[in-house]
Amino acid sequence: WVKLSEVAVKGAQYNSHEHQPHPKCLQGTQEDLLKYIYGFLDDTEKNHLIWLHGTAGIGKSAVAFTVAERMRGIKVTEETNIEKQLAGMFFFSCKHTKCCTAGYFFMMLVYQFATNFPSIQKDVNRTICDNPALLDPDTPLCDQMEALFLQPLWKLQLRLHRCPPLSFVIDVLDE
């Protein structure tokens, strides 16, 4: 866990001081879009991928932060564990070396994921102990994705099958 926390890109997460102040939607703006997104995220029957696209400066990051803020405050419960519906976030940024490369992407997501869902921390620790090379940013992304992201997600999915879907927010992927 210590090794994972050392390579986790703290500047890429929601509450990072590097993203202060958060570019949130102003009261009364983007209401239709936010309602549409929340409708998808609240649907317990399906998993969804929502991709916001458009020209620079139209407010995609503000929408992403606003959605993340809402999902961060929602808890899911199953078997008396209280965990967050927002499972993880990554905000790419060309200003910071570790935030502009995909090599740290899955490490940061699994760090937040395991922090928000302590029930998978042991599995993540075991995976890293079995293969410490997964924490090398030059490890193939497909290997990191499978071991650090998909396997813990699958184990958690079995336990939370009747709960609202988990949310991951990724912003500025084009950087």
From TrEMBL:
Keyword annotations: Repeat
Keyword Repeat attributed: yes
Superkingdom: Eukaryota
Residues in Nephrocystin 3-like N-terminal domain copies: 40-175
InterPro entries, A to Z: NPHP3-like_N, P-loop_NTPase
Protein name: Nephrocystin 3-like N-terminal domain-containing protein
Species per Swiss-Prot/TrEMBL record: Suillus subaureus
